[in-house]
Amino acid sequence: QTVVDPARPGALVMCPNPFYQIYEGSAYLAGAEPYFVNSDPARNFAPDFSQVPQEVWERVQLLFVCSPG
């Protein structure tokens, strides 16, 4: 809630998927929407951030970098 500026339209919080549920909840509480990047088994279950479109990156205000595994 400290990092996200909900006054900016389209605020996003990027999260790996699978994710800890608090990531999604904290995004909503901060006035943003979660954006999930799927973990890729071919990459040892690491999210492939290079596949995220540039227009999405422009809206991201917070990025969770964590692995449930």
What would your notes on this structure say?
The model has no long low-confidence stretch (mean pLDDT 90). The chain is built from two helices and four strands; from the N terminus they run βαββαβ. It has helices at 21-29, 54-57; strands at 12-17, 33-40, 46-47, 60-63. Helix 1 links the parallel strand 1 (12-17) and strand 2. By secondary structure, the protein is α/β, with parallel strands linked by helices.
A few lines on this structure:
By secondary structure, the chain is an alpha/beta fold. It is built from 2 helices and 4 strands.
User: Could you state the oligomeric state of the chains shown?
Assistant: single chain
Please tell me the overall pLDDT: 90
In DSSP terms, counting alpha (H) and pi (I) runs of 4 or more, how many helices? 2
User: Structural class of the helix and strand makeup?
Assistant: alpha/beta
Secondary-structure element series: EHEEHE
Helix content: 10-25%
Please indicate the percent range of residues in DSSP E strands (runs of 2 or more). 25-35%
Q: Sum up the overall morphology in one term.
A: flat
Please give the structural blueprint.
Blueprint: E1 12-17, H1 21-29, E2 33-40, E3 46-47, H2 54-57, E4 60-63
Parallel strand pairs: 1-2, 1-4
Antiparallel strand pairs: 2-3
What key phrases describe this protein's structure?
four-stranded mixed sheet; alpha/beta; 4 strands; single chain; flat; 69 residues
